[in-house]
Amino acid sequence: MSSADNVDAALEEFLARNAEQLLVHHKVRVWITLGDLGYAAYPVALGHYEDDVIVGAEADLDARLSGRLSRRRRMGIYAGEPGTAEILLDASAHPTGAIVFGLGRIGELTPGTVTDSFSLALLRFAIEKREKMSCQAEQQQPLSIGISAVLVGTSDRTLSVSESIHALLEGVLRTNQALSRDSRMVQICNLELIELEQSRAVEAGHYLREICGEAGMASHFEQEPRLRHVPGARVGFSQAANRAWWNRLQIERGPEGDSLVFKLLTDRARAEVSLLPTQRNLVDQFIERCIRTAKWDAQLAATLYELLTPNRLKKTPGQSSDTVLVVDQYAARYPWELIHDLSFPDTRPWAIQAGLIRQLATSTFRAKVLSTPLRTALVVGDPPSEMVPLPAAREEAQMVAGLLGQQQFDVTTQVGSSSHAVISSLFAKSYRVLHLAGHGVYQFGEKKVSGMVLGQDCFLTPIEIGQMQQVPELVFINCCHLGRIEEQEDGSLAQYNELAATLAQQLVRMGVRAVVAAGWAVDDEAASAFAKEFYAQMLRGRPFGRAVHRARILTYVQHSQVNTWGAYQCYGDPDYVLVKQAAAAAGDPPPIFVDLCEAVAAVENVGRQAETGPPERIPELRSRLEGLEQSIAPWNTTAEVLAALGRTHGRLGQFKEAIECYEKGLRVERAHLPLRALEQLANLRIRWAFHVFKGRTSGDEAPD
């Protein structure tokens, strides 16, 4: 063998050994393009339902490809079933091809279906591109390819924009991981998400920024911060954010005692009922093993998945949508957050793939719920007892108290305090937030006490919590074993003996809007990371469901060897917010915009408030406009933003600044400046001259 052959062989062996590392560390560049798909940068990927007609964006793409998609459909060789794909490439067309992947039957689409089918289609596309290049010339360097894609399932509201983006990104990530096992090294380096409608493109831009910022995605994707523009966009912008739909899955005890009944309520008001007979003793053995330690055991979690999930509800990996589990007291005992489908190696646990929140179905509740409007909080950390000291619980309590204090909460902190001090503080005033970090017991001792340990033979139990006149809105219990909700020993519901119930159950019955409770012993560092991220999200005005999900993702990524991310059973309304975003924004960085229309709207809104509000608000609104300077910086030389600034400065009585903005706008090449701007400029020059003549340096009345 020649030396050249030896070098080639060594290079091939090196690439084969290191392909996965080289690709896994490569970041995919992803962006949103607003405009017609005829201007897509790459072949366009989109989904097609089984037995459906070609409509919408698919019909437009078919027309641009001379009807070749519809011809394939008529011949019965078109994509439809999940996992099927049709690839058509034409370098002379605009766009340069189509990648159509099957979505299954209408009404059954899930994010997992999108991810799996999209990934398989991309694999076929990548292999075809590689083989075509190999035929043309021998290629030693990795082949980098790009994909354009249309959001899937959003037009008929089957999927939210967030779910669609997440599914597509997961598909690209999974494809690159699969391609990394090929020594010939093909990699997807660019992903363009193209959207025709402006409002949805802006919404997608914000969701993309959020998803790419997640701990599990940030190392794989690099997002362009602003939208790209191509001709053909449908203009229209709404600042109202759309809330993502949370599916409801009701799980309750069946008529046969140890069976479980599953009822899936989708966004189309469709209920599916599945009955799962369970062997409680067998399942309990696996549950006990799963929660006995904080160590993460994926195989054990997969066993629970197979035992506890009806076959009709078992979908392909990554299929999960944001879900609220409506559980009765029997179903609440199972650690649903831990179940894990191992049918695909790269699948993450259910509670990491998507949001997962619980709601307790109970007939026992407080008739009249009172809560305080004040920003008050009680934080308890590691009361002294005969048990092992918990320095991490004290650190967590101090950290939480600091976070709340930074957002103007009146925080009562009891760290290492006696039982007398804790109970006295509990009833001293009403609290919006109650945070408990320390030792917890469940069915402890002869009296079978469930609660937080406050000292020797002293516990904070449901009796004390139930005596609070005003209910906290948010309760966080970071103790061992407090999140478990069981039946009484005789199998009956806990209707009469509230002492036998856990704190989490009692708080839900009291009317607490959001409860986070640990179902078993948690790892100290992971627990601190979860709590910190959860409160950071809630204090920014994030909904409860999103805050929980972000905290779980961060904890899972940073502490993947433990199961603490799944230990927290989170009960409540996924849309509940602790503080309003406007109030939470005081210490936050300025807003981030992804498109010109948002910058114009933000500036115009300040001017409209000046036009309709009292004169006393003018100084505040001037400060707010100054605060937008960083956010609108990418567009502050465009005629549209300059015209908006001119109008707003004028309404704020800042005539000199208004004139400067209008004059800059007139000098912009290819400016889209309305005729009314010229009228306003003339008006402002007259008024400014009048004020200068009067010896005034600034105006305090708004022009007409």
Structure summary:
By secondary structure, the protein is an alpha/beta fold. Helix content is 39%, strand content 18%.
- In DSSP terms, counting alpha (H) and pi (I) runs of 4 or more, how many helices? 22
Helical residue percent band: 25-40%
Approximate strand percentage: 15-25%
Unreliable sequence segments: 18-24, 237-243, 267-272, 484-501, 582-587, 697-704
Largest sheet: 8 strands, mixed
Tertiary shape = flat
Structural class: alpha/beta
User: How many strands?
Assistant: 22
Compute the separation of the termini in Å.
88 Å
Query: What would the average pLDDT be, to the nearest integer?
Result: 80
How large, in whole angstroms, is the Cα Rg? 29 Å
Keywords:
704 residues; alpha/beta; eight-stranded mixed sheet; six-stranded mixed sheet; 22 helices; 22 strands; flat; disordered C terminus
Please provide a written account of the structure:
- Helix content is 39%, strand content 18%.
- It is an alpha/beta fold.
- The strands form 4 sheets. Strands 1, 2, 3, 4, 5, 6, 7 and 8 form an 8-stranded mixed beta sheet that branches. The protein has a 6-stranded mixed beta sheet with strand order 15-14-16-20-21-22, sandwiched between helices. It has a 5-stranded mixed beta sheet with strand order 11-10-9-12-13.
- Strand 14 (376-381), helix 10 and strand 15 (410-415) form a beta-alpha-beta unit.
- Helix 7 (280-291) runs antiparallel to helix 8, helix 20 (639-651) runs antiparallel to helix 21 (655-667) and helix 21 packs antiparallel against helix 22.
- It is flat.
- The N and C termini lie far apart (88 Å).
